[in-house]
Amino acid sequence: MAPINQEATLPAERRKRLLEYIQQNRSGRIEELAAVLDVSEATVRRDLSVLETEGLISRTYGGAILPESSTAFERLYPEKRLLCSEEKRAIGLEAASLVNDGETLILDSGSTTFEIARNLSNHKNLTIITYDLFIASTITYDPSTTVIVTGGSRREGFNVLVGPIAEDLLRQVRVNKAFLGADAVDIVQGITNATFIEVQIKRLIIEAASQVYLAADHSKFGHAALAKVCAFDQIDHVITDSGIDESILQGLQQLGIPTTLAAL
């Protein structure tokens, strides 16, 4: 991570970069974090305290680590929004460009699909189905667009609707395109999720769509999480960013999956 050389950088942006460093390295000592961000150790300590209060890191003597994690660890929505935010914005813009006016869509939950939704605000006559309440309630779409919310039980900390009610609606629909998110993506293991809670919903989304687009930034690739969603033979197109490893790109090409790299 390149130094930012600004002690007075906006605190939110500085903490975002701090969290990304700890995420990439699994831990960070105060002196190295101060050097990487080119800020004082006192500033790092204050930022770590804020991140700890938000539940995003755990403080240790002299530094910080990620919270206790495993393949079942799932980050809360505020943390997801902070990670790879520029990449997600680029993916959102690219994905939305693949949508035609008048189409029917399902948008999976998550911070990447939220960026897709933001870029659909000027499309006409869309029908958007989602179980993500942020996508449903915080974006202003064109008046000609219809937004259908699945219903279900609200999942605390993620603002999504899950359970039998959500699943029943998805069994009854057919759409042109679905945009799927992921916690982890591996060429061999396929698309996986940190928990089982949303897995059945994601599988039903795949079944309901004529075309399934996986929208995931480069940090998701090369990893596997606890619960398998699907194999790559159920994915029609991948949208990611230019930070993806070349070997993974080659693997996708060998699988015959069209891949779009969003420009940063």
Automatic annotation (TrEMBL):
Gene Ontology molecular function, alphabetical: DNA binding; DNA-binding transcription factor activity
Reading the lineage from the top rank, the first entry is: Bacteria
Spell out the protein name for this chain. DeoR family transcriptional regulator
Question: Start and end of every HTH deoR-type domain?
Answer: 11-66
Look up keyword Nucleotide-binding and say if it applies. no
PROSITE patterns assigned to the protein according to its UniProt record, in alphabetical order: HTH_DEOR_1, HTH_DEOR_2
Supply the source organism for this entry. Answer: Hydrogenispora ethanolica
Name the PANTHER family on file: AGA OPERON TRANSCRIPTIONAL REPRESSOR-RELATED (PTHR30363:SF44), HTH-TYPE TRANSCRIPTIONAL REGULATOR SRLR-RELATED (PTHR30363)
Provide this UniProt record's keywords sorted from A to Z. DNA-binding, Transcription, Transcription regulation
Q: Does the keyword Transcription regulation apply?
A: yes
